[in-house]
Automatic annotation (TrEMBL):
Domain ABC transporter per the UniProt entry, residue ranges: 334-562
Signal peptide: none
Domain of life: Bacteria
One MF annotation (Gene Ontology) recorded for this entry: ATP binding
Subcellular compartments: Cell membrane
Sequence intervals crossing the membrane: 20-44, 50-72, 133-150, 156-179, 248-267
Membrane topology according to the record: Multi-pass membrane protein
GO BP, one annotated term: glutathione transmembrane transport
Name under which the protein is recorded: Thiol reductant ABC exporter subunit CydC
Taxonomic classification: Bacteria, Bacillati, Bacillota, Bacilli, Bacillales
């Protein structure tokens, strides 16, 4: 219910449209009751052959009620749907505001297909919250109160029967089906998430599935997910249909009760027979407003589950409490003090008691075998993760106190995998910063040995670029950004040796007065580094300059000899 409260808060923001939709809904519902009540009275009255002017007045009332009903229904639909669309907009905005700060960490906990299902499917589910959950009970109660007051003028006993019918169809039966709907709703959403996940993986992995001849197996799994989802939808639909049928059955029994009791009261002389048809028509009409209550349990449970799934994505994350700014133009030092880190739901420590100091303007390489914790180290510097134990300082300030947006804004970052958007080369380079000229972008491309026109098309994820071209384009973006902190994770792993040497030369020219942290599995070209940190199994095993480590003939020296033997 906590997550649903957030949705309710977003709903009540649209006070004006909500009040107007409730008012016009009440007007339309009460006009419908008035229309049928006056019709019943007109039939009874006409049977007694009254003066023509009396019938004329009643017919005029019929036309008035019909006109008001149509106008009220139109206005109610207009304002309620306008409120819904605005609420949906507010909901998406609130969700993305919560999600955005955690975007770098989110894919480690959720699969992309599941996220897509939440962002699209669950948000769409919540569009029914106002129209099918929040709004109907309010209008129903108001209409019934007005009807009960009017009915009690003629017969309190019949008003009590209507009240009993309201209790059964508006509260008891929906509550019963709400309990039954819980398990069904959970299974539908889970099946939808599984189907979305399987579809996404099938599309992304189609090429590999073809290569390894596993396409049929994945197709079978996807087909099974589809069948499961359809069956869960069918089961949920049957429950909703049963609920609707039960409500309709009860309302018919109530109308029969009104007719029987009314006939008895007329026979006893406690009710004018002229009003019997009117009261029966009221009982038939007023329960039309109970119809939405038949689907309320489904939409209520759907909204609960959707809001829980939606906001849990962001609520599970620790909110960023940092407010301090890194500061533009400053060249930060980096310090790790007894830092430990373990990924969620893993027992193995990714980092163990890591401590080091990187002075301002220093050039540091972090090397070691795959899985030694090099990339994790860099991710902690960027505040993608937070240490399990210990402290990370950037520019002398605890990273916990720094606003993560400030850290990202003042860092030149090149990761192992960099995203490229569908568009042109110019549009992908303009991500670096605003106001770049064509000359600046062309110069950056030339510095990384890319002979591309700025209008060259780039496909989604850079599918028309090779691995080396993607890395060089990412480095060109870093050159254009021009901040004072460089965080580079295997930036040239897919680039040939000669091009790599040229890129490093230009990199050190750009970063001459900056702080540079380079993660690398290659041991060549590290002679210019002020410090080399050697890692193994999450711990630092050696530190020093290139000459010091080679002279020590320790772990780094052995790695260097292995590299020479492999590539000689």
């Amino acid at each position: 219910m906590k997550d649903l409260k957030e949705v309710i808060q977003l709903v009540v923001v649209e006070k004006k449209d909500i009040v107007l939709s409730i008012f016009f809904g009440f007007l339309a519902g009460l006009s419908a009751v008035g229309l049928f009540a006056s019709s019943g009275y007109l039939i009874s009255r006409a049977a007694l052959m009254p003066p023509l002017y009396a019938l004329t007045v009643l017919i005029a009332f019929l036309k008035l009620f019909g006109f008001v009903r149509a106008l009220g229904r139109y206005a109610e639909r207009y304002f309620s749907h306008r409120a819904t669309f605005t609420i949906l907009s507010n909901l998406r905005l609130a969700f993305y505001k919560k999600l955005e700060p955690h975007a770098p960490r989110i894919f480690q906990k959720y699969r992309s297909g599941d996220l897509l299902s939440r962002i699209v499917g669950d948000v769409e589910s919540l569009q029914n919250f106002f129209l099918r959950v929040y709004y109907p009970p309010v209008v129903l109660v108001i209409i019934f109160l007005g009807t009960l007051v009017f009915t009690s003028i003629f017969s309190v006993a019949i008003a009590v029967i209507l009240l009993l019918g309201l209790f059964l169809t508006g509260l008891l039966i929906p509550a019963w089906y709400t309990v039954k709907q819980r398990n069904s709703g959970f299974h539908v959403r889970k099946a939808r998430g599984d189907l979305s996940t399987d579809t996404t993986e099938f599309l992304y992995g189609f090429r590999d599935l073809k290569i390894y001849q596993q396409l049929d197996n994945k197709e079978a799994a996807l087909h099974q997910s589809s069948i499961t989802y359809l069956k869960e939808q069918e089961r949920e639909g049957m429950q909703m249909l049963t609920n609707h049928s039960m409500n309709t059955l009860v309302t018919l029994f109530v109308s029969w009760g009104v007719l029987g009791l009314g006939a008895y009261l007329v026979a006893e002389g406690d009710l004018n027979g002229l009003f019997l048809a009117m009261l029966v028509m009221i009982s038939l009409t007023v329960f039309e407003n109970v119809t939405p209550m038949a689907v309320l349990p489904r939409h209520l449970e759907d909204s609960k589950r959707a809001s829980a799934r939606l906001f849990s994505v962001a609520d599970d994350e620790i909110p960023d409490q940092g407010t301090a700014q890194l500061g533009a133009g400053k060249v930060p030092a980096i310090e790790f003090e007894n830092v430990e880190y373990r990924f969620p739901d893993e027992t193995r420590q990714a980092l163990k008691e890591v401590s080091f100091k990187l002075p301002s303007r220093s050039k540091t390489a972090v090397v070691g075998p795959s899985g030694s914790g090099k990339s994790t180290l860099l991710q902690l510097m960027m505040k993608f993760h937070r240490p399990t134990l210990g402290t990370v300082k950037l520019g002398g300030t605890d990273l916990e106190l720094l606003d993560e947006e400030s850290v990202w804004a003042h860092s030149n970052v090149v990761l192992q995998e960099n995203h490229f958007f569908y568009g042109t080369m110019r549009e992908n380079l303009e991500l670096a910063k605003d106001g770049l000229s064509d000359e600046q972008m062309e110069k950056a491309l030339a510095e990384v040995s890319l002979d591309f026109d700025l209008e060259k098309s780039v496909l989604e994820k850079g599918e028309n670029l090779s691995g080396g071209e993607k890395q060089r384009l990412a480095i060109a973006r870093a050159f254009l950004k021009g901040e004072k902190l460089w965080l580079l994770d295997e930036p040239t792993s897919s680039v040939d040796a000669l091009t790599e040497q040229d890129i490093y030369h230009r990199l050190f020219t750009h970063a001459k007065e900056d702080t540079v942290v380079l993660i690398s599995h290659r041991l060549t070209g590290l002679e210019k580094m002020d410090q080399i940190i050697v890692m193994e199994e999450g711990s630092i095993v050696e530190t020093g300059t290139y000459k010091e480590l080679m002279a020590k003939q320790g772990y780094f020296y052995e790695m260097k000899q292995i590299e020479k033997n492999v590539f000689s």
